[in-house]
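4.2 Preliminary Data

To establish feasibility before requesting continued support, the project team ran the inverse folding procedure on a target of 135 residues. The structure was first converted into the token representation described in Section 3, and no sequence information of any kind was made available to the design step. The complete token record follows.
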């Protein structure tokens, strides 16, 4: 299977999750997204401060725990999905900081933007693009 085919399959799968058609990727079939996030090391406090709709249970790690984010920093979230880690990072960098999320799935970008808008999170922006070819 070539790179383009893999990207197409991944994009289709995440598109279905973003649209609510499926909830199964990354080994999370049947998992409660909050329980899965806790298993990755996210705290209950972190889960309370993000939009519920951003936690789709798609994470494959906990980059926030590995970072030492401070106020006023700029963060790039590659594969940002519905914004879960981007919103946590936005909280850490504060109003003067900025988070830019990149995702290859238009439906995920739409969902992340909607989550930011509905929850008045103004220090994030989401861009459509591929990690291998950043916009």
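Position-by-position output of the design step:
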């Amino acid at each position: 299977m070539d790179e383009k085919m893999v990207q197409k399959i991944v994009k289709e799968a995440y598109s279905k999750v973003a649209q609510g058609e499926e909830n199964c990727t990354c080994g999370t079939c049947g998992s409660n997204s909050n329980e899965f996030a806790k298993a990755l090391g996210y705290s209950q406090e972190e889960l309370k401060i993000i939009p519920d709709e951003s936690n789709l249970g798609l994470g494959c790690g906990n980059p926030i725990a590995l970072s030492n984010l401070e106020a006023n920093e700029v963060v790039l979230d590659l594969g940002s999905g519905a914004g879960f880690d981007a919103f946590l990072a936005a909280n850490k960098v504060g109003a003067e900081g900025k988070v830019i999320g990149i995702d290859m799935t238009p439906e995920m970008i739409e969902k992340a933007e909607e989550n930011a808008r509905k929850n008045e999170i103004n220090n994030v922006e989401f861009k459509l693009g591929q990690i291998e070819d950043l916009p």
